[in-house]
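== Polypeptide entry ==
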Amino acid sequence: MTAAPKRGAALAARRTNLESTLSTIRSRTFQMTDALTDNDLHRQFNSLMSPIVWDMGHIANFEEYWLLRELDGRPAHDPDLDVLYNPFDNPRWVRADLPILDRHEAAAYLDNVRADAVDVLRDTDLDPDAPLLANGYVWSMVAQHEAQHQETVLQALDLRDDLAPYVIATQERLPRRTAAVDETARVTIPGGAFMLGTSDRTHAYDNERPSHTTDVATFTIDKFPVTVRRYDEFVRAGGYERQELWTADGWEWVSEQGHTTPQGWIPDLDGGWLVRRFGHVVSLDPTEPVEHVSFHEAEAFARYLGARLPTEAEWEKAAGWDPTTETSRTYPWGETPPTTDHANLGHVRWGPAPVGSYPRGASAYGVEQLLGDGYEWTTSFFERYPGYTMFPYPEYSEVFFGEDYRVLRGASWATSKRVARTTFRNWDYPIRRQIFAGIRLAWDV
């Protein structure tokens, strides 16, 4: 077979894969929203989060802009929609007052844009010399954007006091670990140089690039995420009342908010804890990773135990570096795409799995559950890497760089498999705890 037919076959296969990815993620969007009432979709239940119908319209508007207007030169479907669905001009707390599309209009907008986008995909050459087109980058970006908004929608729903459609939240979550593990086990990561970040131009966002040499000192890190049982000790020891455990900013925040537990915790009559998830009160498993904690809570907990949070470079070395081959892995376990044997990803369950449930997902150093279950706070501010180049728009990463945000690494149980990777960088304000985020501790050696 000559080079041209080979390239044609590869191009057709890549187009088919991209179309399938877009379809799978869109099916998830409608599956999540179809069960909800108009009130569930249109009402803003918490000022931290958008009305869900706004997210639906924004997903369609983002796809229209990149796949129809940027790639195919088409005019705007409706210029007013660009104004309504611009997240920077319209912060979350004002979106409920905007004249946004209703659920039926938003669904039609999603369908119409997608039909045209698929036509564009089938007719577009994935030109390897065009950064947006090479390996279908812009379609991958659009798919990941929608998947990330699905997780945002789940965060909004998890803040609800009641949510009748999602009765599955009360059901047993699998797997259950088959053998006891030491929840406090630690792994020592040897110091030295390694490659941080990636130079991938197919899936990775600009803030993950470029791959560059970084040096870290030897450190020790938790083998597992911090469990509910471990965090419970901090709560019962009066951790939320002990000012010496908190930074000045952290103490101001916890004092003003009056928090005494992670989001959703409810005391049980037997002395344990219940938790409210998606409007349903269920038993809180002490062996699962703690979630819904802010950076301030994570940092205070670390100080309580004489530990600290890892830097993002330390986290990535523990997660993605293979000291034998001296190469970076896409996933902690290697290059095999995630399955339910590796990690709790993709919203197949309604919360974290007990620690020790995924030994096959261990990194080269033996650290487990680095992807899935919950994002993990690091001490690092969200900064650009050396050699960073903005692509394809500054509003994804560049406008957020600075000391206002802390980096979270890993992925949660609600994160799409198409987003989860060892180089992915999430970020948020240190006061935020509606995100599915937990803790992994580190120590100097």
In short: Residues 3-165 form a domain with the Four Helix Bundle (Hemerythrin (Met), subunit A) fold (CATH 1.20.120). The chain has a mean pLDDT of 94. DSSP finds ten helices and 14 strands in the chain. The first strand starts at residue 186 and ends at 189.
